[in-house]
Amino acid sequence: MAKYGMLIDSTLCIGCRGCSVACKQWNDLPATKTRNTGTYQNPPALSAYTWTNIEYREVEASDRLVWAFLKRACMHCEHPACVSVCPVQALHKLETGPVVYEANRCIGCRYCMMACPFGIPKVDLNQVLPVISKCNFCADRVSNGLPPACAKTCPPGAIRFGERDQLVVEAEARIAKNPGKYVNHVYGKEEVGGTSILYLSAIPFDQLGLPDVGTESVPALSDAMAVVGTPTALVTVAAALMGAFWVSRRRVELASQQQTADLFSRRRAELADQQQTADQEKEAKQ
Amino acid sequence: MTNDWLDIKNSNCVLIIGSNAAENHPASFVWINKAREKGAKLVVVDPRFTRSAAAADFYAPLRPGTDIVFLGALINYAIQNKLYQEEYVKAYTNALTLVHPDYKGPADLDGYFSGFDKDKKTYSSTTWQYQTEKVKVKVKGKDASGNEVEVEKEASVPKQAGSLDDPNCAFALLKSHYARYTPEMVERICGTPQEQFLEVAKLFCATGAPDKSGTILYAMGQTQHTVGTQNVRAMAVLQLLLGNIGVPGGGVNALRGESNVQGSTDMALLFNDLPGYLGLPSDAQADLKTYSAKFDATSYWSNGPRFFVSLTKAWFGNAATKDNDYAFQYLPKTSGNYSWIPLFEAMYSGKIQGLICMGQNPAVCGPNARLERAGLGKLKWMVVMDLFETETASFWRAPGVDPKSIQTEVFLLPAADAMEKAGSIVTSGRRIQWRPKVASAPGVAKEDIWIITQFVKALNELYRGSTDARDRPILDLVWDYGDPPDVELVAREINGYALDNVVDATGKVLVEKGKIIPSFATIASAANPDVIACGAWIYSGYFVPADDGEGKSLPAAKRRGQKDPGELGMYPFWGFAWPANRHILYNRASARPDGTPWSENKKLIWWDRDKKQWTGYDVPDFAATKAPDAAANPVGVGLAAQAGTDPFIMKADGKGWLFAPKGLSEGPLPEHYEPIESPVKNPLSGVQNNPVVKVWATDKGKGIGDNVSTVDKFPIVCTTYRLAEHWQAGAMSRNLPWLAEAQPELFIEISKELAQEKGIRAGEKVVVSSARGQIEAVAVVTIRFKPLMVDGKKIHQIGMPWHFGWQGIATGPVANDLTPHVGDGNTMIPEYKAFLVDVRKA
Q: What is the pTM for the complete model shown?
């Protein structure tokens, strides 16, 4: 089965927001009331009702102006932290790539919000039983052979949907074919162990708004603890405690045996003494 | 467009000037990006660093209203550095044609061209005409007895110079005219640093090479100026010099602003035109004969009178006969300028009783909108046909208006949306696509043709039995589309059909009675063209069943064939590009004079010596069997008067016009004049503004009136523009929650420098004022606008989108309350793009 991803070439993005409107339409998400706070960026951030958003950043380099557009949404990590930490297994990574969730199972603990290195899951506080929500890679479309709504609508073709491995190759080919145009890095190839969503950029990724999250997957850290460390620790401690218990119990047992043995030998000694005394008295009477 | 959207992918350099394609035509970036994958560069020139500039390889700023300086300097650069495609220029343009010896230009007359009448404020174009010479031509004819004789006829032809160095040839005049347009001048007038201008010049003028082509994409940033027409002329001249007309990846390409505005201009929804750009007769053209004489006899326009007759036959049927000049007198004639601005001036002066406003929102989109809304209040009645209750429909209860003070009776007719009716629309690339109805209109909303049909029925009822000759145009109107009207019957009429058997000169039947005609060539070649009804000659062929490349036959505009021979993005089996499914106009110019392509990688059509016809990837925009070495017949009619090396078949001399002897009010060559409201004195010449432009002065000095902002009170240059998230006057987008969420309020974009000077912080409210009004908006402080150094003076600029009004979910003040009531010297399109304002904290 193919494993899908999306390549977002931010040099091709024109910030038109077709993607965020298509997402809202496909997923029946409501619009929110917004104000212009001095920027094109609206809604201001991801939320329970906004699963993808364009962020606008102005950068003045020495020789040119840059107006950078970042499409922010769930990265659909290969080794999702959210999946790993969810106590009720409400989040799953599908074989085809999407990290999906079942709102029915969510208990609103927000552990996933804390665990996600990209700050993606958002909670809907307007519900009586708050649950989290996020981009689900249009898993319903993808499983029917259709591209996600955002990729389908992107007018300039900045979002490319396809098999993740092929997209990595494509991204690296673009960098090679256009020396000096891109930062020499495919963001998401190895970030936190690899993500389904990949980015290319002309400016440093932190200036684009993507965090430096390292290459180690978040669950790898907890996996090391949970899968190896904790059982090992448990077993070792259990064994040590069991050993100590056995030793202690044996000592008690031995001590008790010794006590009994001492008791018997004292009694035998006593009886021996008594017998000797009785024998001496009998000899004296004859 | 001379070319098409998909053709952009064939370009080596895409120049976006006077357009923000990424913002307003995001889909165009598919093709721009395909071109860039092949190494093409994207260059953006704009007062502001836009979303298009963000994607560009190179950006240069320029002051609003100074495009002719920039383009003229590119022309000068191409000439001085010999980057023009010399063979193309000599063969296909009027470069070598000699101009009247008394012609003088602005270099000699300090800003004027020869022939200006200062009182009438008009030019006489006598000194702009070609020099001509008489040639004698031997013509075979028949004498009275029927014997073949050779007769000598005399004709007048444009006189040609021996070389481009002849000081009176068009090229030399062009060269000396633009010699004043130097990189220094660009820096001085446009505020563009010289190195940035030179980088643009280097990138774009490299497309003068025969194996390279460059495309210019433009929109309202070029047209919405008092010199708008000349802006477009300047682009045309540059592209002719670089050999970029008629070739893949080239062209002068207008990005039309609505999905069917191309259709609206084709069908002449303009006061002074007729469908197919025939031009409405004027008062001075008293009869058909006089009107017909205006069409060039030596270009394809020689068929103009035939197309006119087929039009009136479509409209009036049997009531249009030879005896009544084919109903020539039924048509209204222009006796003045009834374009938008004069219309609203007349309305404001109480001269207009009623207005039917179809899919238009003048309350938001009109220049000097406060004056125009006041004009609406002077009407007795107004009918608004629209999808929503727009600001125009509700002008009588706008914020601050007391409904009791308005006497206008307003009728709001709900109209069906584009998806709720079948019909055709035309893209910027002239491609006509038929669309079916896919949804039902809500409530009692109706299609436009139904509404108009009810008008016609009611008017016929009202006029029935009248004997007044003035009422014949209503009573004789042919309206046989059914009830309810069938749009496909309208389409058939627009395509053209035979009212009776159409025959050629030998009597052979070309088209049977009742059948649709295959193309406008039928009208041109018929012996009896007055039996043809055709609603728009340029569309002819669009509704004729044609092969979709996959074996299906259906009306051409309905086709969705996927084949693309040549892989140039032409998709000849998809829809129908007028004229005659030609996708790149003037494509004869893609081949050398000898008929072989200029370059293998830019080949489009070429001469097939064996089949003796033009062949290739596009329908030839040329007589299909005319050899490349065919001689012109100076006494011939129509295209016979043009040679096999004359690609510009709609021009009397078959050449592309570097120098334009006619057609333009203010001169044969584009010359820079400042916008009516400018912060500086014109550094280029002693003529400050376009001398033919009318500046209205109604109620000047009053609160609402034609007041002009002057730089002492209003020192900041302002421009208006559009956003990706909103649509024109806003009814369709400000009523959609997701779009209202993305762009909820009116804002201005203001430079960090100006914001600092005024103590304005991002997100704060500001007041923007002009001589015509003031509005409040949010400040978006940005590095993407910068002050410009103009003629030694620091000039600040701001800009704002104009989509907002008081109706809908996302509301805001009307930006057009600030814009001036002045328009272009030829088209009268308002100067929305450059005017003066002041800004302060709210």
A: 0.93
